[in-house]
Write a structure and sequence with these properties.
This protein is an alpha/beta fold. The protein contains seven helices and 19 strands.
């Protein structure tokens, strides 16, 4: 197989599907409908369900199985309660429910759907085209009411002890590494596609890690009202804002792209590794939990492994 230095690779990014099912009515007003574009990689950034449950995960697997993609990577979110063993045990729920939930995400139905359920950490993949990439994933978000996969605001899951901010404690068992190509988390970093009536509710520690790692793309969801994309110019931030906080700098100097989502056509992202990061909030549900947000189809040039 002839392999060029980089290979254009398509990613279909979705999140917060919350028990979504493809409708059977032609001309459905839902942007995410069949036939979905054939892609190389499908990324699901969590919240497959409303509150978990095996039947809901089975429904999610059926939905994912309807999408034509060589590779399908999935993480849970705060609504997928029984996938979080620590949360489930702390609430004195039946341990068997957690086992069955994980089995639904990793067993026969997942195999039939072609879906890979990823645990927190860094993973490497090579596609049939020869394109290769590394991806860091984490389902965790700052604590909000009593949902799963939570951590406190003064805890940092993404940076090691020598990388955290003052008055913050590292609890990272799988810190986000420098140089990773793609990051997929359930929630957003602070100040990036995270605005809601409660303000900017993203994670400061995640922003700190993203600024350090400078991935090509960071995908997430969680904040339904912020479906969209934003370009972060790291060199501009470093040059113009050596004394400003990250959040202030990003809000002032990020290149916001208020473009209409071209789906089902791809958004072609030409990047320089370490120079710019494409942030993608791919929440499918609106604030009213209606599936009216379109997914994002992103084309990236990935290095060739051959």
């Amino acid at each position: 197989m002839e392999c060029f230095p980089t290979i254009a690779t398509t990613f279909l990014v979705i999140s917060d599907t919350h028990n979504f099912e493809f409708g059977n009515t032609p001309g459905s007003p839902q942007p995410l409908r069949l036939p979905a574009p054939k892609v190389d990689v499908l990324l699901h950034c969590g919240d497959l369900t409303e509150v978990g449950g095996v039947s809901s995960y089975e429904k999610a697997m059926k939905m994912l199985g309807s999408i034509d993609a060589e590779l399908k990577l999935v993480i849970p979110g705060n609504h997928d309660l029984d996938l979080d063993k620590q949360y489930w045990e702390a609430h004195d729920e039946d341990p068997e429910d957690h086992i069955l939930a994980v089995d639904a995400m990793t067993g026969r139905l997942a195999d039939e759907a072609g879906a890979s359920y990823l645990i927190e950490g860094t993973h490497s993949f090579t596609l049939k085209s020869g394109a290769k990439f590394t991806i860091y994933v984490s389902p965790y978000t700052p604590a909000f009411y009593d949902w799963a996969f939570a951590y406190e605001r003064n805890e940092d899951r993404y940076n090691g002890p020598h990388q955290v901010a003052d008055a913050v404690t590292s609890i990272a068992t799988e810190p986000l590494p420098d140089g990773v190509d793609i990051v997929m988390t359930h929630g957003p970093p602070k100040g990036i596609l995270d605005s809601c009536p409660g303000g900017n509710v993203g994670c400061d520690s995640l922003l700190r890690a993203i600024r350090r790692a400078k991935p090509v793309m960071h995908c997430f969801g969680h904040i339904h009202e912020c479906n969209g994309i934003e370009v972060i110019e790291w060199q501009k931030l470093a040059a113009r804002n050596p004394s400003r906080s990250d959040v202030d700098a990003i809000q002032k100097y990020s290149k916001w792209r208020p473009i209409e989502n071209p789906y089902p056509q791809p958004f072609v992202w030409k990047h320089g590794h370490g120079e710019r990061t494409l942030a993608v909030n791919a929440a499918i549900m609106t604030v009213e939990y209606k599936p009216e947000n379109a997914p994002w189809l992103i084309s990236l040039d990935l290095p060739c492994s051959l």
